[in-house]
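#structure-requests
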Amino acid sequence: KKLYTNVSNRFELAPKSSGLVRKMMSTEERIAEDAVYDERLNLRNELVLRGSRVENNVFRMKNIQQDMNDTINNSLGRGLGPGSLAENYISKALGDFSMFETDPGEMDAVKYSPEKQFNSMRDGLTKAVETVAKTDITAAETLAEQAADYMAIAEDTIQGLDIYNKLASDPFAQATLQRE
């Protein structure tokens, strides 16, 4: 609901003409007005859907992140160098998680690099799995599965954020939403 409200406030829809004003329009004018309204509505709906999917993914990612930390804490290497090092790799890899916690559309689309973000996370999680594997292969296998799940959701989330930000900041989309 919060996301819907944010999108609605940011991209307000002008109401369609009604009553006598609408009756006095020609058929072509009514069709054109309906087409513009529908285009705006579809774009807003796309923004809401993309944003809500991102929010759902962020919730799931937080749970997996906690599970990964629990796996490391319960591994044989806990408290030893490899366990602490693996926690550091995960912390570093997921350190930019705060970008997922912002409302979609708050990030500057020009400064956002989804490919770089994804590769950085993947590399850090791979190092964490390799580090845990030095002391506890079973925990490393579990961590690898959790990391794979996390990265699948992260990839979808990063792409969703990228598309949302581009839609929200695209001059054509903004012009479409502002057109009356």
